[in-house]
């Protein structure tokens, strides 16, 4: 039986940020997603939504060029602001829909979530594992490292980073489930194997289907079915034919049906407390591909909040009769 959601109001929070990777554009995604009707659609299906606007990122420290890791000070400072904003909204009993932003946003988002719900589990939908450390990263971009900042077991591999003192690791590797992986670095594979992280690659999706994987993984990391759920949804987890407007597309990804099913099942638990939408980049594609990306992203997002493909019976619908 689904647990009745304690957090009935959805608080929407934009995180207009792109310094966790190299392309401009993800900082504009909150604007484009709102423009594509993400809030109107959630309201139309009967949700109460409060738009908290965007996290104010106007006065971030300036990083020196050519540092080993790109933009650590701005990424650290921006994510501290995000973490505080997420905690603040959760404390008013709303859930949070965070519109990123590149996927470095998960550092602030999960950290802020864990301050209020320390027992959370993380469902990480992505083509990539995003668990590099600053010492293993090939790209030097922090959007490929958020889980290394957050997981307690990885701290012995983490160097000190400027402007990340606030970020105390707050989850265990046992609290993480991956879905959609298909581009994992050797170092990341070693972490996954070493710590036995529950990782579902695209091969597994094809072999078992999303239905079995989501059932299996939720019952493994949360056998009592009571823990708050954090979904960190990188749109590159979906197939690039569906979400082409993103910075690091990898062919052979999750289908629209896979993502809808996953989102519907998470909604049914009644325990989704934070959803991140990451890596939408409206500047990296044609207008047509951008619109396609927005449409598919909005569609899947609404499924996390009760929009069922089998549709919802309207509570007060009177069937018209001839007079
Ligand atoms: Mn990612």
From TrEMBL:
Binding positions for Mn(2+) 2 per the UniProt entry: 126, 234
Any Gene Ontology biological process: urea cycle
CC cofactor note: Binds 2 manganese ions per subunit.
InterPro entries noted in UniProt: Arginase, Ureohydrolase, Ureohydrolase_dom_sf, Ureohydrolase_Mn_BS
Annotated Mn(2+) 1 binding sites: 103, 128, 130, 236
SUPFAM superfamilies xrefs: Arginase/deacetylase
Catalysis performed (reactions): L-arginine + H2O = urea + L-ornithine
Enzyme kind, highest EC tier: hydrolase
Pfam (any one): Arginase
Gene Ontology terms, MF aspect: arginase activity; manganese ion binding
Cofactor(s) it depends on: Mn(2+)
Protein keywords: Arginine metabolism, Hydrolase, Manganese, Metal-binding, Urea cycle
UniProt KW Metal-binding keyword: yes
EC number assigned by the record: 3.5.3.1
Entry's Gene Ontology cellular component terms: cytosol; nucleus
NCBIfam families (alphabetical): rocF_arginase
Family: Belongs to the arginase family.
Identification of the protein by name: Arginase
